[in-house]
Specification:
Two copies of one chain form a homodimer. By secondary structure, chain A is α/β, with parallel strands linked by helices. The N terminus and C terminus of chain A are likely disordered. In chain A, the strands form three sheets. In chain A, strands 1-2-3-4-5-6-7-8 form an eight-stranded parallel barrel, surrounded by five helices. The first copy, chain A, has a five-stranded mixed beta sheet with strand order 9-17-16-12-11. In chain A, strands 10-13-18-14-15 form a five-stranded antiparallel beta sheet, sandwiched between helices. Helix content of chain A is 38%, strand content 15%. The first copy, chain A, is elongated and about 95 Å long.
Chain lengths: 657, 657
């Protein structure tokens, strides 16, 4: 199952026992939670998260990205969000590129990138918004759209006027303050608002003090925190903070950290921001300006030293990084500072979406375990994600997955790479078995290529699935084409690095699960075998036409992952749900065609082989309900093969399907 | 916890795997269950239960009772319902006594007795209703009231006209058929309807055939099954059934069985029913008519023999017993027939109510474990019992328990017996400790009386609590006055005779729980000790004024009993809920006064002692979250005593409360 971690910690949030909170009669009136509150961070606003971290003295970091120019750049950036999200940023922010149609539905727009970060990567995100040369209507439209997409935080900026001869517009947006006021006026308290601070004064400001007064106005207009422009010396920021406090600015002020990553990028940035590089830095980098590695190393070292001073000052609750959409330097600085924490603890066994309407989501069908973005996409129109259920009789509809090239569902690999992995030319069904087997084992195929993904799994095997590697290899080799599985777990600690999730002190459980495609001949034998495993094993077997064979109680979901935690109700985040299996079935079968068959020419033998499998194989899922015992699912498959190997029996039973 | 069993079996209700149900697309439209369907019997109607039992060839029995004349008779009858319910009747029925204000709210009315059987004893119940000399309005009012109280089944009877000179009334109810028609007309399909059959013809009928035709009319008007008048020979019933079938009556026909229990009761019944006792029976009982035991033994033997013939005929799906409100004879007949099955399996760990609006109830706070009738009473106005929650922010209110002498909450023991058990005169708080200790150990007190109940526990210790007997004795002796507890359970089979519940093939779990009253001095030490047990132990500590000390996450229920079953979602039927604890607290403290202190005279030392405890003690509950380990709760109490025994520490900490 997915092992990605958003910045979400479980909160103990307990009453002070010595303080002896006196609830008494009043507690009777208090509202009841309708779902176990797994995690306060999930429901809290960014300002509240900051407040809590400041109170606990727990430093944070945040990461700034800009929208990519191309769709393949967008796919890469989203992968980067997933990787950098694993280090635990408090939030990320996406800049607003007025020239790039930033509010549009294009895959590369600021709006869509920020939406993707929130909805599909589960990251708390701040969308930049600039206001100069914009009508109020246009700005309101952007804000409404952002709200609809689940964005909750705005970085309010003036932006750069077009041309040199900018003049103030009456009634228009002339300063960021106007935008802050507009947001508060039109959207009340809905958005958390960030504004920019300039440690050496805004280049266009009349004076440093004048600029500070502008900043105070922005905060007074309703901003919740400040992120500063980059700077090169810790004392620059510390003086600035002191000056801000002196004029009554009390909100968090986050220093903008820019690890120098190259000579040319530094020069360009300095030019744009009209900053001066201090002499001591120039003296170091001028002599090594042709040595990229040396400059990068220096940049890391310089940023680390400066951040240490900032954090030690006690004035800095968190660091904001200008990443330039790169990973290495920022991650290294954070590692050296001890702020990059790849916490293997997961709040739930699947990656949580940060859309506010999904804040109570605590159960999903297991089928989309390797395609969480698809699940989120297909359920994006649902009104709520109620306690323990992901729909009800009046609104269980899954959205159609019509566009298989939806950018966040797109394979990270180009067509050529896919052909290299999955075969330029398929000879038979067995060629397909080999692809699945090589994916499991991690061995190279006959052309020397490793299979890094399959249509149903865009990433290498999860560490949990690795536990089942030997058995999976064996069955895939014989045409049991596995696409999803989990081992049984009988009460491991919630802190277990591989299968653990949820708050500390708990216990997690799983029923063994196996999902695979296999031929109708195999299914005929399997059904014979399964009679011996009643009622221990539940199965759902379906072909592309929707023919459905099951022994499961009518329409009842089977919980296959659950956790028991101190002071909480049971959490059962993963279920095998008969209704959603029929929706998953459509998607799982379609992936054969859309992602695999279409790599080959029409009417080509390779395409026909995939098409044959699509048309004739069954999708099977098996649950072993007896979670305290060793899984019997491998024995079920073994029994199936034994039965298939005894020819008279398979003939007798051939008519069953 | 309560270990009472209603006639509720878990149904596997699985699809036919070989039949290969083709749900396909259609399954997408099907409605979703909003709660795990634990038990088909709970949602099914009586006619459906009968249908299923007939199909499976599983014989049933049912029991007829009449309403008692006195309120103490009512208390006894309700205890009898609980005891006789444990043998697994498919339903019970309550006769309608026109002379006894049968539709009133009196504790002894037919209506209230049937309502109690449904709501508080969880028994599928049939209310008799007679129609002659009644207006349509009156009848409709009775039926509406029955529906409101959760009754779903009516036995439609004509009843005995008043006086000898009865004449048909135009437009009135002259026959049971009229009543059946009226029920169907006014209430559509809501009620399951039973009618009476007369194996030897109704005494007022013109002929046997004429009476059969009347019966056919009643069934055609909408009755669902027939219960017959008593008879003495199996062939009488079998001929009658054959004749019914011959004229097209197809519904179930249940023979009314009357085990002869005494010479005089037989004579009286025969006179009323205008039946003739066969010669062969007369010959046996006349010689022994003064020997009650001999007659009873004969009655049992005669009934068993007749029932064996009936069941062997294949014409009889179930037996209906005229109990005369007595237990012994009917239970013995049922035991000898192998129909009395005290199935230790419970569908949930607490006794289920049979009110239709509670059919999805699957979670309760643990506090009312020994007072389930009080819980049902206090939640009777709730609109629904939604999945996994017992209320929501808009309607969590518990009804006030104003009347402590409410008949179904009344102690089974009279005041004198209570005084004998709990002490005619209390000398000190220690006298109270002794009462609790003797209740736990089962030993007699200094006056030679066994303590069979306490205000919080109207029954002897549950077998589960017996597992904790030694520890409980030890702590009660020192003033930790326990009123509720359960051991931790780490995955025992759901079929376990002591702690098991739910369908076969599952596993049940519990967190250790302990609830007690104790002095404020003890609580001060306890709070010190509990710091060492964070976060393993959750506690709620409250006094009568509502001062509440807790380390539990805000308002979150803690699941303390749960089960994992094949093909189902997790079921968590028992929780420690902070909100309802405050309601329970009121009830638990009030019981000191209402049930105990008021036994003694105003201002008497005994009453003052109980009053002192009520005013000064705290109610404490403790949960050990680490269910896979041995419970630490006994160690917590032990540590508290150790701390109390070291004088300097208690002085230092004396100010904490």
């Amino acid at each position: 199952m997915v092992n990605q971690r958003a910045d979400i910690g479980w909160q103990s949030s307990k009453s002070d026992s010595s303080g002896a909170s006196n609830s008494g009669e009043s507690s009777k009136e208090s509202s009841r939670c309708s779902t176990p509150v797994l995690d306060a961070d999930r429901t809290d606003r960014l300002r509240d998260k900051m407040k809590r971290r400041i109170e606990s003295g727990d430093h944070w970091f945040s990461l700034e990205f800009f929208p990519p120019r191309t769709t393949s750049g967008a796919v890469n950036l989203i992968s980067r969000f997933d990787r950098m999200g694993s280090g635990g940023p408090l939030f990320i922010d996406i800049t607003w590129h007025p020239a790039g149609d930033p509010g549009s539905d294009k895959e590369t727009s600021s709006m869509m990138i920020a939406s993707t970060a929130v909805n599909y990567c589960g990251l708390e995100s701040v969308l930049h918004l600039t206001c100069c040369n914009q009508t109020k209507e246009k700005i309101s439209a952007h804000l409404n759209k952002a709200k609809r997409l689940g964005l909750k935080n705005i970085m309010a900026l003036r932006g750069d006027p077009i041309g040199e001869d900018w003049v103030e517009e009456d009634g228009g947006f002339n300063y960021a303050t106007d935008l802050v006021k507009h947001i508060r006026c039109e959207f009340d308290d809905y958005f958390d608002i960030c504004v920019a601070g300039y440690p050496t004064g805004h280049p266009e400001a009349e004076s440093y003090d004048d600029d500070l007064r502008h900043l105070k106005e922005k905060v007074d207009a309703g901003a919740h925190f400040i992120v500063t422009q980059l700077f090169f010396r810790a004392e620059t920021f510390l003086k600035f903070t002191k000056d801000c406090r002196a004029i009554g600015i009390t909100c968090p002020i986050l220093p903008g950290i820019f690890p120098i990553q190259g000579y040319h990028s530094l020069r360009q940035l300095v030019k744009l921001s009209k900053l001066e590089v201090p002499e001591e830095i120039k003296q170091v980098i001028e002599p090594i300006k042709e040595n990229d590695a040396a400059i990068r190393n220096y940049g890391i070292q310089q940023a680390v030293e400066m951040c240490k001073v900032l954090l030690a000052s006690g004035e800095v609750p968190g660091l904001h990084f200008y990443t330039l959409n790169r990973e290495v330097a920022t991650m290294e600085v954070l590692r050296q500072l001890g702020l990059w924490v790849e916490d293997p603890r997961r709040p739930l066994p699947w990656a949580i979406s940060a859309h506010p309407k999904r804040k109570e989501e605590d159960v999903r069908p297991i089928f989309w375990a390797s395609r969480p973005k698809s699940y989120i996409y297909r359920t994006q129109d649902w009104d709520d994600f109620p306690n323990g259920r992901w729909g009800n009789s009046s609104s269980p509809a899954f959205g159609e997955l019509t566009d298989y090239y939806l950018f966040y569902l797109k394979s990270k690999s180009p067509k050529e790479a896919l052909l290299q992995m999955w075969g330029e030319e398929l000879m038979s069904e067995e060629s397909v078995y080999e692809v699945f087997t090589n994916y499991i084992t991690g061995q190279t195929n006959s052309n020397g290529h490793k299979i890094m993904c399959l249509p149903w799994n865009d990433d290498p095997l999860a560490s949990e699935t690795n536990l089942l590697k030997d058995e999976l290899e064996k069955v895939n080799r014989r045409g049991v084409l596995t696409i999803n599985s989990q081992p049984n777990i009988n009460g491991k600690a919630s802190s277990d690095p591989i299968v653990g999730w949820g708050p500390p002190g708990g216990y997690v459980f799983q029923k063994a699960y196996l999902e695979f495609f296999t031929s109708s001949e195999n299914v005929t034998a399997l059904l014979q075998v399964l009679k011996k495993y009643e009622p221990r094993v539940n199965y759902h077997i379906v072909n592309v036409q929707g023919r459905n064979i099951t022994n499961a109680p009518d329409m009842q979901p089977n919980a296959v992952t659950w956790g028991i935690f101190p002071g909480r109700e049971i959490v059962q985040p993963t279920v095998v749900d008969p209704v959603s299996f029929m929706f998953w079935k459509d998607e799982a079968f379609a992936l054969w065609i859309e992602q695999w068959a279409k790599l080959y020419e029409d009417e080509s033998p390779s395409r026909m082989i995939i098409k044959y499998i699509h048309d004739n194989y069954y999708l099977v899922n098996l649950v072993d309900n007896d979670f305290p015992l060793d899984s019997c699912l491998w024995q079920v498959i073994e029994d199936m093969f034994v039965l298939l190997d005894s020819p008279q029996v398979t003939q007798d039973e051939g008519s069953e399907l």
